[in-house]
Structures are given as C-alpha cells and as structure tokens.
Amino acid sequence: MKILQICSYYAPSVGGIEQTAHDIAQALQGRYEQKVFCFNHEKGSRVDCVDGVEVIRVACFAKVASQSLSFSYGHTLKKVFAEFRPDVVIFHYPNPFAAYHLKKQLKSYPSCKLIVWWHLDITRQKILGKLFTGQSKWLLRRAARAVATSPNYIEGSPLLQSVREKCTVIASCVNGGRLVPSAVAREEAEALRRVYAGKTICFAVGRHVPYKGMEYLIRAGKLLDDTYAVWIGGQGPLTKSLKALAADDPKVEFLGKLSDDALQSRLLACDIFCFPSITRNEAFGLALAEAMYFSKPAVTFMIPHSGVNYVSLNDVTGIEAENRNIAAYAEAIKKLAADETLRKQYGEAGRRRVLENFTFDWFQAKLIQLLQEMIS
User: Fold this and answer.
1) Is the overall model pTM greater than 0.85, yes or no?
2) I want to staple 330 with a disulfide (CB 3.0 to 4.6 A). Which of 84, 172, 223, 238 is the partner?
3) How far is it between the farthest Cα atoms of the chain?
4) CATH hierarchy code of domain 177-357
5) Structural domain spans, the chain
6) First to last CA, the chain
C-alpha cells in the first residue's frame, strides 16, 4: 500500500501538526511505501529525505492569513499522483490552498482513499472559515475516515458532527525517545535549580500567537510576588509586544527558541507547567502532554470542546481556570506553589495519563488499525 501525506510543513519545521505528520511517517516506516508532500519552510523547491521518508517540498511565494501560497503546487502534486499513484492520502486539515489542488487530483483517482486528519476548525479567520466551508464539507464527504485528536473536538465541531460516523480519535503522541533527558540537560537543570533556589518556577513554551494566550500568563504573573520565576519559551509575531507587556516585571524571562536539551532542562527544573491557551485553535496541546510526561502539574484555561481539557484533567493532573480569568489563573499557580504534595500528586497522575493514553506505541497501534480497517 502506498501512502501520501499532505501537510503544510514538515520536519525539521517545528509545530504540533508537523510533529504529528512526522509521527505518522515514523509509525508507518517499514510497513508501507510512503511520501510526504508539503510547502518548503525555506526558499525554493526541493526533494529530500527525513528519517528514511521522501519529502517533496514546493516553493512558497507568500503567506496570507496563515495559508501558504505556491505557483508550482498544483503541477507538482499532479506529477506526484501520476508517478506515485497513492492508495491512501492522509490530508492534514486545515490547508485550504492544498485542499483545492487535492480535490482536482482525487477526482482523477476515485479508488484513492482519503483520511482527513482534522487538527482544528478554522475559527480565528471567520471570513476564510465561511469561504471554505463548502470545500471542507466536500473533503469530509470524500473521506473514508476523519481523524480528530480528542473526543472533545469531535463533539464541538459542527463539521465533524456532520460526519460523526466517519470520525475516530487518534490522540497526538509524546515521543519518549526525543524526551529522554541527556546528561547535558540534567546538569543544566541542576544548575538552574541552584540559580533559582527558593523560587517557584513556572514554565510555558509555545508559538507567540494570540491563541496561545501568553499575554494572560504575563498578566497573571503580575499578581505573583517575587518568590516566583516565569519562564516563557518560543517565539513568534507577538514576541515584541509580549516583551513590552512584561518589561516592568523582572520575574518574567523570555528564553527564545529552545533546543531539545534546553527544553528538557527547563522541564526538569520547573515546578509548574503553564499552558495558557485560550481558544479551540489549541486542539490538543502536545507541549502540555510533554510536560505531563515529565511529571509536572499543569495550569490551563477551560476551553469548551478543546482537547486541552482532555489532555490535562481538572483536579487530577492540574488545575483549570476560567477562560481568560487572570486572577483565577494566578490563584491556581499560588495553590500549587503552596502545596508540594499536591504538585507531586498531580505530576505523577499526569505522567500516568500520558503513558496510558498518549504514547507513540498507542498512536502507532491505532493508526495501523485504522488503515487495516480501511483496506479490509
């Protein structure tokens, strides 16, 4: 069986969707013939190999409302279909420009089965969401199966509800191999604990975009005293404004883009993991699951029908605060800071939840089961 994945970007580009696409490729490695088709995160078009899988990357001339655009996309995709002739396409949604060209190819290959991997509804770009509703419905009608990362998201998505019988849940996974702390990370974590001795360390990491809610963490941080340290990893279009917002608060430290070793050392050293995402654009929360794997209690906002509150359970693995309620978020942090036993209880429960639900082995088993059901 030949499988073609279509996604916006792919490793070494970093992001939740990119990581899921990479996990799919690794889960299928050696079992099926496969290729990945995506935009190039650098200039130009090229074909390369990532962990044994061929990746076709097409040049992107612009990005509008988070959507990449390419002059060569349609022609190159047509060529890939003609030469590779995939039996199954795994399409990572949303990606409207790619969906337009995929639709044309699928009409020429009626036997090709389609899996729509539904990462999130288009909610932030409301005009675009309405504009592409017809396209999204067509994709779901054409799909043999639609995959969501949590049952919460299926229940909250009108489009997925319209094809509920096709929907299945395959949660994103924590890659334990990537997260095994190196000797360097352990040494750095010990050094950090010495430097920040006597402080409760709160750590957050993610792209600096509106739905990640870093603004709310910074504002909550202003309600904490100087016995706290707030680390914020990642970068993005809001980095400059976030730094300006935190300029009068010395407890906030921006870490920038983190290497694997740096991420591991910060996860080892912190006391509380803060995940302040505020909208359903955060469909799962891979960084949240990774922190739970490190036995860190989480503080999140309640997001109706988001996978965030499926990954971390309120009063089990962490504390949920009312969405965008800065005072409540700060109080949750204070509650955990004041109770070491509770932090340990939630942290251990979080690690168990990851090991029981969000490992690569579980992910691989469910994916292979899905493919076998489709071809049986």
Assistant:
1) yes
2) 223
3) 65
4) 3.40.50.2000
5) 2-173+359-375, 177-357
6) 12
